[in-house]
Structure formats: structure tokens, C-alpha cells
Amino acid sequence: MLKTFPIGGIHPPEHKLTANQPISYLPVPASVTIPVSQHLGAPATVIVAKGDYVRTGQVIATSKGFVSANIHSSVSGKVSKIDTIIDSSGYKQTAVYIDVEGDEWIESINKSSEILTEIKLSPEEITKRCLETGIVGLGGATFPTYIKLTIPAGKKCNLLIINGVECEPYLTSDHRLMLEKGEEILIGVSILMKALKVERAMIGIEENKPDAIDHLTKLASSFKGITVHALKVKYPQGAEKQLIKALINREVPSGHLPLDVGAVVQNVGTAFAVYEAVQKNKPLFERVVTITGNGLAKPGNFVVRIGTPVSDLIEAAGGMPGDTGKIISGGPMMGKALRNADVPVVKGMSGLVVMPLEESERLEVQPCIRCAKCCTVCPLNLEPYLLMKLAEKGLFEKAEEERITDCMECGSCSYCCPSDRPLLDYIRLGKSTVIKMARERNTK
């Protein structure tokens, strides 16, 4: 029997429309808008000014504080302005605007297509390279990778877990990356193992990607300590705690991290970015993005420069359908609707789902019928109906007692609710408020 996590979970329709679409390169845009906060933690500090000429791969904003990441130019050209933008999360932040003039890369980047297998850097040098090149988690969380590779005193890592699950409906960027860049990914896994000083790595992939499982299994036979594991299809298996439970049956306690059970989890896209950073000295200035939706003429998977307008991706997919209701950054379960198509592509954007109005309209909210379906599907054993009510009534202290901050915002509760109640909306509100309250307590 295939492994999976035991508590909760759902099986939404997969809609993997682009699973057989090879990765192609989106043309370099006429201009880019590069936000300085594309990671968890403090925004990076801008180090360029209006009128400066920058090259592809050049640092334009440096990490500030312990939890932060460098930001690099994804194009060559002149900085037209430093201004604010409404980003893909809907918040206003600082961004660097660049008008493109050709595509001149910094000299230190190895642009050859040769696959480099020998890992020459030491563990400490690998961690430093990940810091310098702005590598963050590409599964969506965007946690700076160098921090995950820095094991605190008193902690011990004995296993690296690589997330190739891609359980969100519609998205296929990781799937295609595993098929087309499998060897580079496994070298990246070996690099991460060396940095963490571990002897074992497990790659988890859901069984609906048999071609990726077969491909990586064959390749992994030539790599010491790396094994590939097929998992039962169940959402949200791509979440760290659920993946750890499925693969090694270790329970990450509430308020703790995977490292507390001896594991570090990285996405397959991150492993590929680490390969490019360490072996090619290439900063993270582009990534694979799935552009998909039932109404698109040419959905696909594209390598896209960071800062490219979303509208360019939509044009590459055949243009905006006339009946579009929403453009979702990420998958339909955990993604967020964009305000407009001028939003730039960022490091954490693995996909865009263009949804027709009929599919995106919310149904009328009905009274809760106490069916407990939301509790049954919650992978963290929470009570979503209760957390919604507490947030709705402003009872945030009680919501904190009920572990509202444990919620991973997977959306399983809202998906299965027969009364179409906006459970996740209220839980997000309550969670953000409780986190703010906790910060204020800690600063007193």
C-alpha cells in the first residue's frame, strides 16, 4: 500500500492540463518590476538608483537581517525608477523598475549547457553561495534556503526530504522540471546533502506522476544515498508536516519545525536552483511557471524572468479569455486572486490559473449545519467551524488557544463545506491578528 499522511486530506479534481507540455522560454520582456520582498522575513535593501545600468544576475537589493534574501536583476538595462507596487499578495511594497536593453549577463555566471557533476564547494561555501544568489524555497513558502542549511547549536539533521509532490490542482511546473532537469535536480540534492552533512535523502512524488517517478528512480541509482518514493495522491501532501508523516512517520509537534524531528524539507525546484547557484554561480532571477486554465488556448510551462508582467504570460498562453473571472497566483486551493494582470512574476509564483467567471464565482453562504466535514478533512486536527466563529466574533485570545496559528491555510475545509461558508477567509483573518498580538507581547 502506498504511503500517505493519516489525518484529514481531500481529493480535488487534478486538472493537470499542462503535464505533457514541455518547458519553453518566455521571451525577455520590454521592462520588469522587481519587488524587494520575495521571501519570508525582512525586505531586501535597494542598492541601485534611478539611471543606473544593471546587468542580468547583478545584485540590486541586499538581504537585511538574519531572515532575508538578496534580489538580483533578471534583465540588463537602465533603472527607470524605485517606486512601490501592489504585489501578488495584494500588499504595497518597494520595487525596482528596469527598462530592458538587451540581455547582458554578469561574467561570473557559467552559461554553458554542460551538466557539472563534481561538487567542489565545502558545506560552508554552499550555504554562503545560497545566501549570495538569493535562493529561497520555490514550493511557495519562499523561506531563505541558506537558513535551512544552517543547523542551530543543539539541533541535528539526519535526513533530507525532497518535495516532488505538487498536489495542487492544475500546477505542473515541478512535474516538468523533474522530467526535463532530473540529473541537475539530483546533483542539487547531493549539494544539499553535503551542506547539511547527511547521508540520506528521500524524494517523495505522488503516484499520478509515474513518468517522473520512473525517471528519477533510474537516475537516482547512480547517486549515493538518494531514494525515490511513490506516495498516494492526497491533498495537501506537499505540506512539510504531512510529507514528513507520510514518508518517515514522524510527527512534527505543534509550534515546532521539521528539524525538531531530524529532517529538513526542500522543494525539487529549490534543488534545481541550488544546482544552478553552486555549479553555475547563477542567481535566482528566473523560474518555471505553469500558466493554465480551462479557457486558455495554449496553456503551458515557461521559464520566466522575475519581474515579468503576468500579462506577458497570459499572452503566451493565447491571451485572456473573454469570460475570465479570476487570475490566481498559485493553485486554486492555496493561491490568491490577483488584482490585475500587471502584477510581476516573483520567486514564489509556481503557477497562474486563469479561471472563468462561472468557476470563480462564490456561492451564497448558508448557515452551518454542524456536519463536521471541515473537522474531518483538516490535516492538522483543527476545528475550522469554531476558528471561523471565533475570528468572526473577534475572540482572538480564544482562537489562539484553539491553535489557529497551526493552520497551514490549505483550504480543505472551505472546499468541502456543504454550506459554502468562507471558513478559510475568517481563519486567515484570525491567524494574522493572533500573530500580530503575539509579536506585540514579545516586544513588551
The strand line-up of the biggest sheet is 1-14-13-17-15-16
Rounded mean pLDDT score? 96
Extract low-pLDDT stretches. none
Fraction of helical residues:
25-40%
First-residue to last-residue Cα separation: 52 Å
Number of helices: 14
Helix vs. strand class: alpha/beta
CATH architectural group of the largest domain: 3-Layer(aba) Sandwich
CATH topology group of the largest domain: Rossmann fold
| Computed CA radius of gyration, to the nearest angstrom | 21 Å
Strand content: 15-25%
CATH homologous superfamily grouping of the largest domain: NADH-ubiquinone oxidoreductase 51kDa subunit
Question: What's the β-strand tally?
Answer: 17
Overall geometry? globular
Could you give a short account of the major beta sheet? 6 strands, mixed
- At the first level of CATH, the class of the largest domain is Alpha Beta
Question: How many structural domains does the protein architecture include?
Answer: 4
Task: Explain what this protein looks like in three dimensions.
The chain is α/β, with parallel strands linked by helices and 444 residues long. The protein folds into four domains: 29-100, OB fold (Dihydrolipoamide Acetyltransferase, E2P) (Beta Barrel), CATH 2.40.50; 123-280, Rossmann fold (3-Layer(aba) Sandwich); 286-360, Ubiquitin-like (UB roll) (Roll), CATH 3.10.20.600; 373-443, no CATH class. The N and C termini lie far apart (52 Å). The protein is globular. A hairpin with a 7-residue loop joins strand 13 and strand 14. The protein has 14 helices and 17 strands. The longest helix has 21 residues, at 423-443.
